[in-house]
Amino acid sequence: xxxxxxxxxxxxxxxxxxxxxxxxxxxxxxxxxxxxxxxxxxxxxxxxxxxxxxxxxxxxxxxxxxxxxxxxxxxxxxxxxxxxxxxxxxxxxxxxxxxxxxxxxxxxxxxxxxxxxxxxxxxxxxxxxxxxxxxxxxxxxxxxxxxxxxxxxxxxxxxxxxxxxxxxxxxxxxxxxxxxxxxxxxxxxxxxxxxxxxxxxxxxxxxxxxxxxxxxxxxxxxxxxxxxxxxxxxxxxxxxxxxxxxxxxxxxxxxxxxxxxxxxxxxxxxxxxxxxxxxxxxxxxxxxxxxxxxxxxxxxxxxxxxxxxxxxxxxxxxxxxxxxxxxxxxxxxxxxxxxxxxxxxxxxxxxxxxxxxxxxxxxxxxxxxxxxxxxxxxxxxxxxxxxxxxxxxxxxxxxxxxxxxxxxxxxxxxxxxxxxxxxxxxxxxxxxxxxxxxxxxxxxxxxxxxxxxxxxxxxxxxxxxxxxxxxxxxxxxxxxxxxxxxxxxxxxxxxxxxxxxxxxxxxxxxxxxxxxxxxxxxxxxxxxxxxxxx
Length: 534
Known about the structure:
Layout: H1 4-19, H2 67-79, H3 83-96, H4 101-110, H5 119-133, H6 140-155, H7 157-170, H8 177-185, H9 197-212, H10 217-225, H11 235-247, H12 252-264, H13 268-289, H14 297-312, H15 316-327, H16 339-348, H17 351-358, H18 365-371, H19 385-402, H20 406-424, H21 427-432, H22 436-457, H23 462-471, H24 488-498, H25 502-515, H26 520-533
């Protein structure tokens, strides 16, 4: 199973290449690593300022002592999924030294998925990196970084792995190269939970780094991340995430990482607290750096995850409150394709409706309709309307069933199926709108809802339809919570309980708790099934 990050990273890289203007295209004549034979001495700063907590030292070729820690902070942010924060650090370094190759490299890396608003800056840094990388005054080590990025953009992850492996083996004291290499090596787990060969090699590499640098925030983050979608999260992984927080308590990424693993292990209250800390740090960063919310996707990720955590803890009113707050953030017309904006229009704006429809005590329809978002203003990616269109049909099916209108349920299923068919043809549009991963999640949601509606229509064969939905479920990723805030086994368990099949209901609850440990709704259904079995 390939991990979500690799898919997003490659899609962003491909999208970046396609977005470059014709004048910039010659840059993609890849520099050849073997042609860089000549070593040159690095221009090292006389005395650089101290590094922030958890950031590892590496020599950077720069004329400004103050630029070096900024570049290293940026590299740490890159490795902990803080792209916009990384960009700000690399940009600050370039103000001090416009000819810092590694700062230009960092701008290119951090802006891969930042939207067309940053295209000019991306292209300019790519041109500058190309020129600097071919200049003999720069160290071969830094030119190898430029080559590795060029390989990734032109040839994809497989060839990029080779470039990063060469870099890591040639400069073994580099604290960052093995982590970038490990990131590209990850290949997840098979259906039986066995790690792939790349996964095992990535673990070995990162463990090796941690033996030498136990306080490295990037290495601690990466080591925990390697278990991101493991079928079972061991206690050691949660402890590693806590160590990542301890390495730099001011890192919102580290708190979000901890929240993810607490969520995976069923500590939803602890997860919510960790996500709240991440949110607060994101807001503080916005204020101090004067960054618009549209560019702060980390805030939206943590807020969305916190709402889902509260739902799984059975705190439905608190989940609705958080979801309503994040859904009410105004859209920024200046950044229609920014990372934060995409999260708003695909995930945050419809989150209150998704949570209300998932509530075992279905609210009155007027409350759900009131929470539904208004149509998107012109200028924003319209493919995201498909998510709300699906929710509308699912909502109609649930309330029709509540009223006993079975034929209306069937009509809703037909409309939902038509929406799914239309959306399945939207891959090219999703790439153009930089929304490929959200489009995939939207289709996952639609397919799950379709199976649930089938089960409503034919309750005697609910196990058949919901078995397909159960099979298609995935574990939560670091970047976003599950597309559904419950295991599909819960839906089947409730159907069994309603049909008087308490034993089958208990079995489904037990299966669901493997994916969502301690899920309050599942535990409540299990309690009812046990009582009915007596």
